[in-house]
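Task 17 of the worksheet. Students: predict the tertiary structure of the chain below and write it out as structure tokens. Keep your answer in the requested format; marks are given for formatting as well as content.
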Amino acid sequence: DTAGGANDVDAVVRMRQVGTSSLDVLFYKVDDYAGTVSGLAPGQAGYEAAVQAHAYQTTAGGNWIDGPGFGAFAQTEITHVNSGDLVAMALQANGHTYYAFTGANADGTTHLWNYGLNTYGWEDLYGGGDQDYNDLVVQLDFTSTAGHGYLLAG
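Model answer:
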């Protein structure tokens, strides 16, 4: 949830890429924990278009965020996040789009792993590859843009 339950805030996106492929990530709003978007379940006809229609924009104005490249780190922000929004991700890699919800993936394979603390790892190869889920590690931070930017030790 956003800091203080605020609406229309930015969320920080931090990425570390280990995979060598060209990777892009998209954040979109889902209706429920099953991944439904505008009444369409993952894998149903029209799901991809619904995802695009519910994509968050970045502070740069686009929807897709380029991966930082092998061994690199990058940070950006997505905009207009509201308290209570359910935020999901999609990954473009090697000519395929993979979703947070396995039912939407053409290969029927899970490509996203939840490490906890709003940190997720992607597998970028069709069919699941080596299943290490570290090709692109993404963290969402819903609080840093709300404060003064200081970390206090107690």
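Marker's comment: The helical segments are 47-53. The beta strands are 9-17, 23-30, 65-66, 73-81, 86-93, 96-99, 112-116, 119-122, 136-141.
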